[in-house]
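Bit of a strange request maybe. I'm writing a small parser for structure token strings and I need a real example to test against, not something I typed by hand. Could someone generate the tokens for this chain?
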Amino acid sequence: MSYVAPLKDMLFNIEHLARIDQVAQMPGFEDAGLETAQAVLEECAKLNQDVIAPLNWEGDKNPSAFANGAVKTTPGFKEAFKQYGEGGWQGLQHPTDFGGQGLPKTIGAACGEMLNSANMSFALCPLLTDGAIEALLTAGSDDLKNIYLEKLISGEWTGTMNLTEPQAGSDLALVRTRAEPLPDGTYKVFGTKIYITYGEHDMADNIVHLVLARVQGAPEGVKGISLFVVPKFMVKADGSLGNRNDVHCVSIEHKMGIKASPTAVLQYGDNGVAIGFLVGEENRGL
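Reply from user aminoacidic:
Good idea to test on real output. This should exercise your parser:
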């Protein structure tokens, strides 16, 4: 069954309910009126209808597969994600300072709806990357922003969120993944995370894991949890990729209805040292 984006309805909502004309009066959004919204949504519809939606059935027939520590995604996903990134879609609603288009989320939400309607298995990768971008924009240091944001926003790298653990489910108070401080200000991260959407795949050069962990000496419960960036590959001073970090996929789960999305079990610090970088200043003084 083919996908046809409901452009007429979306544009009606954007014009009459979201009041895009009022949004365009806000600083930085002067060029983001109805005409821009229509042009962006029409191009977004073409991509989703012609490229991404046709991969939905392919994903059911040939879901992501795990072998020898690596994940091979559905045929066509890698090429489609490259096209998605090169088209600027990952950076649509993110700041121009880091290579994004800086458009309002009023427009970004409509594009996100198209992507999820066309192919949810595919859409989960940009969704998790958006979350990582927002977290770094909100709480990341200037160094972390400068190292990771441009690559995430361009779609060259992708992001994840590591919350769930085997013994804890989604109960953050029971998180056992630990982070030990090192003299250089980084941390050694140890633990197991499960249900990590796009935790391992072959669609991007690097995967930037955002990991919830407990610093040594932190209080029990949710107050003792901090957030860390733990990249799949370390990043050199010149921005190029360095050595493989000690975060490895040990298996992938199976999700009903979204077979093409690789949902990984990730192991940190089992074969050496998984280096993490604290996001924000939550528990640095402990």
